[in-house]
């Protein structure tokens, strides 16, 4: 039964002013300034311009949270300002949020899922609230495809965020690894090209979390976003920026329609393999894939 007496109303208003509203404002402020994201519960911001993203990458906050034993379930649920895209790293609110079609292997534990992010895959699920993701383990053989409800995402790190926040994580990893040496070598070169770029794959996972999954044989996976077709010499400059590195660099160009391998484009004979949400396709122009043919390949949709 609800007490509607004036005294009860005054007490409720006092509680709202002293406790509930300040606490809610604190959560909103935390989500905006720490992660550059808008909380789903902050309705007042819906009609305003999105807050400016804090350039202190969310990667820094990830390492602090894990070192102090916190879990992602202790953070408020948040809604990203920008659309979630392939290669983004996502943390879930609870290990039970992961949806898989078959029983998960033994290495996929609850403890792992609350500290290690999942990566967004290229797949058309037909439902914007159902995200295709992949779980990565400690070894190359440990991979699992699944799905994650958008409403259960508590944190997101893009490939660009990985680069921005790498300084605090590099000191915790083995700097002698060839792929990390390659990252340090090509970083200034890629910054000079003027395109948005980031690190994906195992190197991106390690730089975002500090988890030691890298080996001496690990490649450096780089994603360069070029939304409109550039001149051929621009793509040549991208290739030269990734050349002569201590480790093999797998550079992928993201056109907005999908991604293709830079080296394959330079060595192409008419068409190139474009990885899209509906599978890999052969196209003549990856920036205008009007006519496509399904590719006969087992390449992963990433």
From TrEMBL:
Record's keyword terms, sorted: Nucleotidyltransferase, Transferase
Phosphoribosyl-dephospho-CoA transferase MdcG N-terminal domain: residues covered: 85-159
Pfam families cross-referenced by the UniProt entry: MdcG (PF10620), MdcG_N (PF20866)
GO MF term set: nucleotidyltransferase activity
Domain (Phosphoribosyl-dephospho-CoA transferase MdcG C-terminal) ranges: 175-286
Protein name, UniProt field: Malonate decarboxylase holo-ACP synthase
Species this protein is from: Pararobbsia silviterrae
């Amino acid at each position: 039964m609800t007490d509607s007496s004036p005294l009860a109303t005054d007490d409720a208003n006092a509680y709202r002013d002293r406790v509930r509203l300040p606490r809610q404002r604190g959560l909103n402020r935390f989500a905006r300034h720490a992660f550059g994201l808008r909380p789903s519960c902050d309705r007042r911001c819906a009609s305003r311009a999105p807050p400016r993203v804090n350039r202190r990458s969310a990667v820094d906050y990830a390492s602090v949270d894990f070192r102090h034993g916190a879990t992602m379930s202790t953070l408020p649920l948040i809604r990203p300002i920008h659309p979630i895209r392939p290669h983004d790293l996502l943390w879930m609110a609870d290990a039970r949020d992961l949806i898989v079609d078959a029983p998960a292997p033994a290495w996929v534990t609850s403890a792992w899922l609350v500290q290690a992010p999942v990566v967004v895959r290229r797949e058309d699920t037909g439902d914007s609230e159902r995200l295709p993701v992949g779980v990565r383990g400690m070894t190359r053989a440990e991979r699992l495809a699944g799905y994650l409800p958008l409403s259960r995402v508590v944190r997101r790190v893009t490939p660009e965020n990985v680069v921005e926040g790498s300084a605090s994580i590099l000191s915790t990893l083995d700097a002698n690894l060839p792929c990390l040496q390659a990252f340090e070598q090509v970083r200034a070169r890629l910054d000079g090209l003027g395109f948005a770029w980031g690190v994906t794959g195992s190197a991106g996972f390690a730089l975002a979390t500090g988890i030691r999954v890298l080996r001496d044989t690990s490649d450096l996976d780089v994603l360069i976003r070029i939304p409109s077709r550039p001149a051929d010499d621009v793509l040549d400059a991208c290739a030269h920026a990734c050349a002569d590195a201590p480790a093999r660099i797998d550079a992928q160009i993201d056109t907005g329609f999908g991604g293709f391998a830079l080296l394959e484009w330079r060595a192409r004979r008419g068409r190139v393999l474009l990885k899209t949400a509906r599978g890999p396709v052969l196209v003549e122009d990856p920036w205008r894939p009007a006519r496509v043919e399904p590719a006969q390949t087992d390449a992963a949709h990433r």
